[in-house]
Every structure is written in C-alpha cells, then in structure tokens.
Amino acid sequence: MKRLLFFITTFISLSVLGQDKNPTQKILIGFNFSPDYSSRTLKNNDGSPSSDLVIKSRKDNEVAKFGYTTGLNVCFNFSQLLGFETGIQFSNKGFKTKSQDLTYFPPDPSLPTKAKTVYAYQYIGIPLKAKFSFGKSKVRFVSSVGFMTNFLLNVKQTSNYEYANGKTEKKSQSSKSGFKTVDISPMISVGIDYKLNNKIHLLAEPTFRYGVVTTKDAPVTETLWNAGLNVGFYYALK
Hints:
Elements: H1 2-17, E1 27-44, H2 49-61, E2 62-77, E3 82-97, E4 100-101, E5 114-134, E6 139-162, E7 168-174, E8 182-195, E9 200-210, E10 220-236
Antiparallel strand pairs: 1-2, 1-10, 2-3, 3-5, 4-5, 5-6, 6-7, 6-8, 8-9, 9-10
C-alpha cells in the first residue's frame, strides 16, 4: 500500500509541474458498469497438514463465478494529463462450486442427486484513484491506479439441486455473521476514453481489483479478486 501511495504522489507532482495553462473539463460526473470474472485465493494460516488438505479439496471443487461492479463517479481533472476520481460502487464478488454428485446410504430417490453452490459477497465501496490520460484527439488512452474501501452488506449462499426425475430446486440463505465487514482492494486499469462531443465521454477499460483483507479469521482464509471490462458514461460539468 505504501508503494501504491508513493506511485500516485509521484505522478501528481510530475503532472502539476507540467500541466496545461488551459485545462479542459475540470469536473465530470458519470456512471459505470463492469461485468466481472470473480474468484478467491486461499491461504493456510496455521500451517497444518489438515489445512493443506482443505485447500486442495476446495481448489478441486471451486471455480470462478461471474459478478459485477457498478456505481456513480465524480472525476476532478487537475490537467489534461492527471485526474482524480471517487464515487460510490456496488459490487458482487465471490466464487462457486462445481456440480457435485450426491450419494446416500441407503439410497433415497426423494433426495437430490446433484448440487452446486454459489457464494456471493455484496459490498458498497468508495474508490479513490488517480487517472492518467494521453493524447489530444477524440480518442485518448487512459490508465488509473488506486484502491477501493469496501463495506460488506451481505454474504449470500445459493444452492442449486437436481433430482433424478429432472426436478430442480434452489435454496438461498444470507448472513454476514463471522465475516469481516471491511476490505481494501487495490485496483489498476488501462483503456480508452472516447469524446463523443464537448460534454459526453465514453470509457472502456479492463480493470483488475484484488482484496488484501481476508473475508474471515480461520485456519484457511480467502481473499477475493475480480477482473472485468469497466464501461463508463461521463458528462462534463465544466
């Protein structure tokens, strides 16, 4: 985190020294939507062989899921090179299990034969990031670096069951008990800003976000990450 703040501060200093005398569009507001590919990393915290077995089992049975990040933003441009953005974001992160065969002793045809579960972590986040723009035409290259402070709203677990007769059933439960309520996600992106007219900008930038706080305290802990194509619509106020 210290390296990230040093990187941002260095770019701000360089930009202020070389900023344009007539910067344009100092304040922009907008909204964004990012379809995300989301998963988690696992860590053995107690160093025990049993925790290693848990991690191996989870890696064999769990896969990434699709989520999303969306919200409202405000961008302050210090120059044609450098801007600062904040706002409020809602994100759906997590992972899911593969479809598992269920067996019973003795066999019971009234019970499901397959099951898979989706784990959805829902957050409200406040992003803080520095934005860098390059070029003078309608199409400009942009990049950004920063972090988002996420506040946990809910953890939803949805199980999908299949029966031998073709019937399907879905059961959901929600709780954030035992989970940490705050996460910090450093993020980085590179993309294109298209100036549609004097007021409207369209933005497309692949974005990667990585959580640095574990979801809970346990012998095996997980941190969440997601990557997606962030698409934004911005309107210049001045």
